[in-house]
Backbone:
């Protein structure tokens, strides 16, 4: 997007520069060309290209259901509860506000909320997605390296919003992740 907008910006600046240097140079171009071409045709091309790029990207971000390991995230004022399929490492070592995921593979997070709208966001792993009471939204995340990643509620949800953070622990494949306890999944 930065590259695309740089091309468009330099085109516009080029036209402005040309118009200053050569005052009569563009006089013969009919107004219709600027209005229809620049006002309708050009945005149409740019927006169509953006849409063609954004739709598959958005689709891959939310993922197809049932293909990969899925965990549940439930937001409340003001914290996060996580739950896992049976036997997953996080199940036995559950701590409030800590999400355990395997590193190096995609994980679907099913996100919901119990009270007001929150938003689930791990800046280093993915975009954010709303946590909405009565609905479940899905976000696909992947931690390429084992380690800890900070997460944060990204939708103002009341006085405790600023402290509504959580930690993601990505464990190496084969590691149980939760203090040496728990079953391999
Ligand atoms: Cu919140």
Residues:
């Amino acid at each position: 997007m930065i590259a695309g907008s740089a091309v468009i910006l330099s085109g516009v600046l080029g036209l402005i520069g040309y118009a200053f240097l050569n005052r009569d140079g563009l006089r013969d171009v009919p107004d219709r060309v600027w209005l229809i071409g620049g006002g309708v045709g050009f945005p149409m091309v740019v927006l169509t290209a953006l849409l063609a790029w954004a739709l598959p990207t958005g689709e891959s971000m939310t993922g197809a259901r049932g293909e990969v390991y899925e965990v549940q995230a439930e937001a409340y004022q003001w914290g996060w509860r996580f739950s896992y399929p049976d036997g997953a490492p996080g199940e036995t070592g559950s701590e409030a506000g800590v999400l355990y995921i395997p590193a190096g593979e995609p994980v679907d997070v099913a996100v919901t909320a119990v009270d007001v709208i929150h938003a689930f966001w791990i800046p280093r792993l993915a975009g954010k997605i709303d946590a909405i009471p009565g609905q479940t939204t899905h976000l696909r995340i992947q931690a390429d390296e084992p380690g800890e990643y900070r997460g944060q509620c990204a939708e103002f949800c009341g006085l405790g919003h600023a402290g509504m953070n959580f930690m993601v622990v990505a464990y190496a494949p084969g590691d149980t992740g939760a203090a040496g306890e728990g079953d391999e999944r």
Summary: The pocket of copper (II) ion is lined by residues 75, 78, 118, 153, 155, 157, 161, 164 (CB under 6 Å).
